[in-house]
Amino acid sequence: MAYHEEFNPGPPVSETLVGGLSLFPGLFETGAIPHILALLAQYCEGETAALVRSGPEENAVLLRHGPFPSSGIAVEEFVPLAMLRDAWSDGQFFSHGEIVGVVCHEIAADEFVAMLCRRRSDALLDARAKTALALLGKVAGRLMHLRREVSQAGTQLQQQVALTARLEDALKHDFLTGLCNRAGLRAELDGYIERGEPCALVLLDLDDFKYLNDSYGHDVGDAILRHVAQALHQGTRAPHVIARLGGDEFAMLIPGIVDHGALRKRIGSLCVAAAKPFAWDGREITCNISAGGCLFPADGRTLKELYRHADVTLRLAKQMGGGGVRVFDADARAEIDSESDTKAIIEDAIRHDRIVPHYQPQIDPRTGNLIGVEVLSRIEDGNGNLLMPCAYRSAFQRSDLSRVLRSATMNRVRRDMEWLASNGIVLDRVAINISTSEIVDPDLPQIFEQLGLPPEKVEIEITEDVMIGRTGHRIRSIVEGLRDHGVRIALDDFGTGFASLAHLESYPVDTIKIDRTFVQSLGRTTKGSAIVRAIMQLGRDLDLEVVAEGVETDAQLQFLKKNGCMNVQGMLLAPPLSIHELAIFAGRGIEVAA
C-alpha cells in the first residue's frame, strides 16, 4: 500500500493525535465515511476540516472545504500539489498545533486521498473510539487491497484468455499460407463425424514441388505454395475447409457431398485451377497436382479410416502420373487390404523371429578382399519362403510399420555380427539404407545403438530424395549429428537425382555410390563410360570413396578396376547372402582376374 509523504503532519501534536487515521484507504469505495465522521465529530471541529483527493491531471489535487455531511462533499477547486504543500507549510489551512490527523492513501496509480482535521480543545477520543477508528481503517484497507487484487486478477485473466485464443488460433493455422493446418482440419472433420453430416476428405500433393524447390530455391517454393493455397481458396466457398498439412501436402474438407462421381469432378476442377502457370521473376512456373478423396460415411466412419483411405487413394493417383485424380474405389480397397496383409506378415515374422536380413558383399577389385556389406531387408514366411521387399513395400510407406521392421532388422543384424565375430570374421563396414521417414525418426540413434558396432564401422546410405525438399535443412542437421558421432555417410544412386553435385558440397558425405544404370552402360555407350570415369575422378578430387554397384559382367569389373575404383558390389561378385553364406564367402575370399 503506497502513501504520499507530502502530507506529513509535521511534529507530533500531543497524545491526542488520532491514531489509526493513516490506515484509512478507499474512503469513497468502502462506504466507511459516515462511521469515520461520526467518530471524528467527537473530537474534531467538524466545521473546519478538509478532504483532499487527486484530480484527473498530473500533480493536481481536488480541495474540498467545509463540514462533512454524510451525503457527500461539494467540489470547489483544483489546486496544484506544490501549492497545497506550500499552503500546508505556511499554516494556511490549519496551524501545526491544531492538526490532529492525516489520512493519505493511494487509490490508484495516480489518485490518492488525504483528510485534514482540527482537533477540539475540549474533547479527547477515548480508547474505545480510537480502537474503532483503527479497526475501520484496517477493514477499509483490506477491502481496498482486495478490490485492487481482484481488478488486477481480472485484467490478467482477460489478457490470458485473449492470449490463449490467439495461441489456439495460431496452432490451427499455417503461417505461410494462412490456411488451416492439420490440427485445424482435424477439429473440423471431428465435428462432421460427431454430427453424422456427410462430407468428403481430399488429400492433394504437388507432383513437381521437390524439383522446382531444389532448382529455383525456397523463395519460389514458398510462392508456389501460396499460389496453390490462393487458387484452392478462390475455387471453394464456406463451409469448405482448405488446409496445408505440411511441406507440399494440402487437404480439403467438402461438406454435403455424397457421390463419388461428383467428388471426382469437383476435385478435378480444383486441381486444374490450382495447377495453372503463374509468373515469378520473369519466368513461368507450373506445378502439377495429384489428389485422392473419400467420402464420409460411405468410405470410412472414423477419422483414422478417412485419413488412411484418402492417403491410399492419393498414392494411387500419383502412380497415374502428374495431375492424377482418384476417388476411393475397389482398387484402393484392395491396396488397403494388401497393407493389412503386410502388417500381419511383419508382425508374424517378428513374433516368430523370421526377420532374416541378407548381406551384399562389397569387394576391393584390386585384391578381392571383403571390405564390408550392405544390409538388405528380407522376411521368411511360414513355409520357409524368402520374401523380397517388394512383397511388403507398403510397410516402408507407413512410419509405424517401418519403425518396427527397422528395429527388428537391427536386432537381427547385431546378432549376426556377434555370430560372425565369434567365428573370427570381423567386417570393416556395415552399410544400412535409410528412408526419409526413418532418418527423421527421433529413435534413430537408439536403433543404431542396437547394432552394438563402433560408429566408424556403420555407414548409412541415403538417396537424394531424402535430402531435397523443405525438410532438407533438418535432414542436413541430423546427418551432421550422425557424422559427428563417427557414422559414415554414403550418397546412394549418385548421378540420378536433381542436384547431386550440390549435395556433395552441403552434406558431410564420405562415400558416393555410382548408380547401377551407369555401371551397366559400361562397354555399351561411350557416354556411360565417360560418366563413370568422371564420377571416379570427382571422388578422388574430393577425397571421397567411390562404390560401383550393379556389377554383372567381367568387362564392367575390369573397367572399374583399371580406372581406380576401390569398392564394387554386384551379382558378378556375390548375390545378397544369408549370414551363414556370408561366413563361407568371407572365409574363402574371391579371386579377381588380373
Q: Please, could you describe this protein's structure?
A:
By secondary structure, the chain is of the alpha/beta class. The protein has 3 domains: 5-150, no CATH class; 182-328, Alpha-Beta Plaits (2-Layer Sandwich), CATH 3.30.70; 340-586, TIM Barrel, CATH 3.20.20. The protein is built from 20 helices and 22 strands. The strands form 5 sheets. Strands 13-14-17-18-19-20-21-22 form an 8-stranded mixed beta sheet. A 5-stranded antiparallel beta sheet has the order 3-2-1-5-4. α7 packs across α8. It is globular.
Briefly, what is this?
By secondary structure, the chain is α/β, with parallel strands linked by helices. It is built from 20 helices and 22 strands. It has 3 domains: 5-150, no CATH class; 182-328, Alpha-Beta Plaits (2-Layer Sandwich), CATH 3.30.70.270; 340-586, EAL domain (TIM Barrel, Alpha-Beta Barrel).
Which key terms come to mind for this protein?
594 residues; alpha/beta; Alpha-Beta Plaits; TIM Barrel; 3 domains; 8-stranded mixed β-sheet; 5-stranded antiparallel β-sheet; 20 helices; 43% helix; 21% strand; disordered N terminus
Reconstruct the topology from this structure:
Elements: H1 27-30, H2 33-40, E1 44-54, E2 60-65, E3 77-80, H3 81-90, E4 99-108, E5 111-119, H4 127-171, H5 182-195, E6 199-206, H6 209-216, H7 218-234, E7 241-246, E8 249-255, H8 260-274, E9 278-280, E10 283-285, E11 289-296, H9 303-319, E12 325-327, H10 330-351, E13 358-363, E14 370-376, E15 379-380, E16 386-387, H11 399-422, E17 430-433, H12 436-439, H13 444-449, E18 458-462, H14 464-467, H15 472-484, E19 488-494, H16 500-506, E20 511-514, H17 516-520, H18 526-541, E21 545-549, H19 554-562, E22 567-569, H20 579-588
Parallel strand pairs: 11-12, 14-17, 17-18, 18-19, 19-20, 20-21, 21-22
Antiparallel strand pairs: 1-2, 1-5, 2-3, 4-5, 6-8, 6-11, 7-8, 9-10, 13-14, 15-16
Helix pairs in contact: 6-7, 7-8, 9-10
